[in-house]
TrEMBL record:
InterPro entries: PGBD (IPR029526), PGBD5 (IPR042423). PANTHER family: PIGGYBAC TRANSPOSABLE ELEMENT-DERIVED PROTEIN 5. GO terms for biological process: non-replicative DNA transposition. GO terms for cellular component: nucleus. This is PGBD5 protein. Residues 22-193 form the PiggyBac transposable element-derived protein domain. GO terms for molecular function: transposase activity. Pfam families: DDE_Tnp_1_7 (PF13843). It comes from the Eukaryota.
């Protein structure tokens, strides 16, 4: 297989520069739309972080039969169109597992308390469906099903980070496009190893992640497959 990676980020502080756009919700929404452009009409559920979660984006996705469940932040999210009463923390003390709900059509805004207030926006789960979050020390904490589903899918990212973060290329160039390039290369190699572990070849050779990376680099550079002397 042959792969090509194209990275185009405009440096600078102008109105169209990266520095001016990287903290704006519109940019994150544009990335989400690009990633989901082939998911239309398939009834997929996507899970989003605070920088992507917004009412406008979720409503736009719903028209394409793409459904969403996202963590909402009053600091990082675009909260346009959401009721202010749900964005303020309750003055009265709350018990773990308590939550408030506001609905508009299929869209639900959930404010759930667990040692702090957590807000979720979703059109993929009914807010009346119950779920639980299981903690090793405190046991089961009741929550809406949307919260349980989000926590379950978020764990995939945590597992990936825990297992492969130490294999990311640590080179830190000054140029942003170079940082993105090496980050993309790191992800590509890690994902290649995951695919290798799913293949029949893994049952024959059983390379570790470090051995796989070493072998891959040697093959890409055209070096002989010999063990390092130091």
């Amino acid at each position: 297989f042959s792969f090509k990676i194209y990275v185009h980020l405009k440096e600078g502080s102008g109105s169209d520069g990266l520095d001016a756009l990287k903290n704006k919700p519109q940019l994150h929404s544009m990335v989400a739309k690009s990633l989901c452009q082939n998911a239309s009409g398939k009834n997929y559920i996507i899970f989003t972080g605070p920088s992507i979660t917004s009412l406008n984006l979720f409503e736009e996705f719903e028209k394409q039969e793409i459904y969403c469940c996202g963590l909402l932040s009053t600091r990082k999210s675009d909260c346009t169109g959401l009721p202010p009463s749900m964005l303020n923390n309750s003055a009265t003390p709350q018990s773990r597992g308590q939550y408030r709900i506001r609905m508009k059509g299929n869209m639900s805004l959930i404010c759930w308390y667990n040692k702090g207030h957590f807000r979720f926006l979703t059109n993929a789960y009914s807010p009346v469906q119950q779920g639980v979050i299981i903690k090793r020390k405190s046991g089961e904490i009741p929550c809406p099903l949307a919260v349980e589903a989000f926590a379950a899918h978020l764990s995939y990212i945590c597992k990936y980070d825990d297992k492969y973060s130490k294999y990311f290329i640590s080179h830190k160039p000054n140029k942003t496009w170079q940082q993105v390039f090496w980050f993309a290369i790191s992800i590509a190699i890690n994902n290649a190893y995951i695919l290798y572990k799913m293949s029949e070849a893994y049952h024959v050779t059983r390379y570790s992640r470090a051995q796989f990376g070493e072998r891959l680099v040697k093959e890409l550079l055209g070096l002989e497959d010999t063990s390092p002397t130091h």
